[in-house]
Specification:
alpha+beta; six-stranded mixed barrel; about 400 residues
Length: about 400
């Protein structure tokens, strides 16, 4: 094996320019794959955080069946106590209780159907970004005041602004009419038209009084420290829930199924492009090794006639390919890791990104996520593809006839 390894290494440098061109193609592909995969994973992380942080959170505790039907009677009893127990048990402040109802909101000139969310003013800023996105007036600060904050598009549709009054009419939990007059104290711009067009928030205690909730609510929102901690936080939260109330914990996959589907669709398209890049590298390696075999046809014929087996020659060609692949893998991982780590620290942006970020309230820079998967997944696939590309040159050696090979020019 040591002799075969030395021969393979020497054979690579019989044509150093060709060897470096082939290894260079692999290095370039590996650097590109590392950066693109890391950027893609970082973009998904930012997209998930931005979508979940806007309103829904990583987890929600609800009454079983509420997510599908959203009926006002499907409640979490003593919801503020449940939220406090979860805050204490999980050791997280990013836990907030909410109530939810649909009602008609009337301004001086227009009436629209809206989605009203009762929130805890003290804890809601830790559970969603909406309090930080108020661009006119202020967010709620009194748990019992008849106040409301509305989305920017909703305010335009109602022709209302900060300081105006809205009349709320809806159906209470006990079947009676829910009615209230509230003051608009703030207008938010989340960058999501669906929220800005229909969503309004009022203090939870005032919401419970208006809709006859008797201390109940509909959801406890939980934000985990990170996406990878969601599963463990969900398990612990489930163990802390009061028994006999038919409560369930939904994670972000249940709350936002379209988000995962969008990511999966993007992954399919991306891996198709990555596959094309790997195939191009495979053809480059195939061309290099095939030329190397054809150039040494006479030499191979001589050693075959001396009794060397075609299988050992095939292993020699395979080992040459493995050595080129290892050079490309090592240099690609090193250079790709260095380049991507720089962007992981400083971020990646492009012209027009800042304007788009301001419009949709998203980060103005993407930060690649450099981890074991993004660092090695692409280069390992390129390496494996390169080794597979050596199969045809190896197969030609099994078909080689010593006499004919020695007569070749």
């Amino acid at each position: 094996m040591s002799i075969t390894l030395r021969l393979a290494w020497r054979n690579l440098w019989r044509q150093p320019r060709r060897t470096w061109l082939t290894a260079g193609a692999m290095v370039f592909s590996n650097v590109l794959l590392i950066f693109l995969i890391a950027l893609q994973l970082g973009t998904y992380q930012a997209m998930i955080d931005n979508t979940l942080g806007a309103f829904s959170g990583h987890l929600q505790v609800q009454r079983s069946g509420y997510k599908e039907n959203q009926r006002i009677r499907q409640v979490v009893p003593r919801i503020r106590d449940v939220a406090e127990e979860l805050r204490s048990g999980l050791g997280l402040n990013s836990v907030a209780a909410r109530g939810e109802a649909f009602a008609l909101a009337s301004s001086a000139s227009r009436t629209y159907g809206i989605r009203i969310i009762g929130v805890e003013p003290e804890f809601e800023p830790r559970a969603s970004r909406i309090p930080s996105l108020v661009n006119a007036g202020r967010f709620l600060d009194d748990p019992v005041a008849p106040e409301i904050v509305v989305g920017e598009i909703l305010a335009l549709n109602l022709k209302a602004q900060v300081g105006d009054e809205l009349t709320i009419l809806g159906s209470a939990r006990d079947g009676s009419f829910a009615a209230a007059v509230v003051n608009i104290v703030g207008v938010f711009d989340s960058g999501l038209d669906e929220l800005d067009r229909s969503l309004a928030q009022m203090p939870l205690e005032f919401f419970q009084e208006t809709f006859a909730m008797n201390g109940a609510g509909h959801a406890v929102v939980i934000n985990a420290p990170g996406l990878f901690e969601v599963e463990s936080v969900a398990e612990k939260a489930n163990s802390l829930l009061p028994r006999g109330q038919n409560l369930v914990v939904h994670d972000w996959n249940d709350l936002q199924p379209g988000l995962r589907q969008a990511i999966q669709a993007d992954l399919i398209g991306s891996w198709f492009m990555y596959g094309i890049l790997v195939i191009l590298v495979m053809f480059s390696v195939l061309n290099t090794q095939l030329m190397s075999v054809l150039e040494r046809t006479k030499e191979f014929g001589i050693v075959l006639s001396l009794g060397l087996s075609s299988g050992r020659l095939g292993r020699l060609v395979l080992l040459e390919t493995v050595l080129i692949g290892l050079i490309g893998l090592a240099l690609g991982v090193a250079l790709g890791g260095i380049a991507t780590s720089w962007f992981e620290t400083h971020g990646f942006t492009y012209p027009g990104m800042e304007e788009m970020a301001q419009q949709f309230n998203v980060p103005d820079r993407f930060y690649p996520d450099l981890n074991a998967i993004s660092l090695f997944a692409g280069p390992v696939v390129v390496f494996a593809g390169s080794v597979l590309a050596a199969i045809y040159p190896m197969a030609r050696l099994h078909w080689l006839r010593p006499v004919q090979a020695m007569r070749s020019a």
